[in-house]
């Protein structure tokens, strides 16, 4: 494949995009890879400026990342990109950031840590120019990849893009995925960063640290609440068990009483079985008294006789008391009569005359 014009490159990129729309991800990744590798060796009829060239390389690289994600092979995407571009630092930064964020999302943090550390270490900050350039030890290395060698002759990375990669490494990977904010802060303090970029990263990390501390406190509170709830549930279970035991004992006692009553009733029924009913004949009339009514009559007769007997005893006791009182009164009158001394001559004796007074 050889491109003679910029239009042909964009036409092939459109074909690769249609492959992704038709879910032909293998074909899309293969075509995008061929486009990237063919561009540096193409003889264009009219010159293509660097901005348009970078845009085409970036679009083709994005198609590869998208296709690998849909194929479930995002873990291998940087292996493919390094092979196509010749080196990790030669990958367009937007393609690199997209692949890195997908690896973070899918949890491939160990692989991504090595890739990010390698990528960030390839650049040095040019204070005068205000950009990041490839380190001299990298530019002195020769490569068989013409695209890589062409990249070495120019600045590749702005401060903005470098800080975006650094944010993925420190905030998303070290602080969040590895939960190691101290290591992230240490890297920011020692890294070759512009001062405003360093301060921005430190503020993000400090804010994240506060958020994680609050989350830890809430988690501890939830654990404490859960523990107290478990204790409360256990207490309620114990109380419920005790209450259930009391209820079972009461039910058992009630059953015993009911069984005792039932046994007494059965015995009474057995006793009354011999007296199921009584037939009474008065003249031409015949009455049949059931056993239940018979038992009721017997009970009434028993209580009436008992009351009458009690009543007779009461009457007899009252009469006896009255008789004894009368006897005692008569005896007291006789004793009084015979105890008084009477003079038999009192009727014929004269009353002595009163002495006369002398005037």
Automatic annotation (TrEMBL):
Protein name as it appears in the record: 3-phosphoinositide-dependent protein kinase-1-like
User: Known InterPro entries for this protein?
Assistant: APEM9 (IPR034571)
Molecular-function GO term, any one: kinase activity
One of the GO biological process terms? peroxisomal membrane transport
Q: Which organism is it from?
A: Rhynchospora pubera
Keyword annotations: Kinase, Membrane, Transferase, Transmembrane, Transmembrane helix
> Per its UniProt entry, which superkingdom is the organism in?
Eukaryota
Q: Which ranges does the record mark as transmembrane?
A: 287-308
- Residue numbers spanned by region Disordered: 220-251
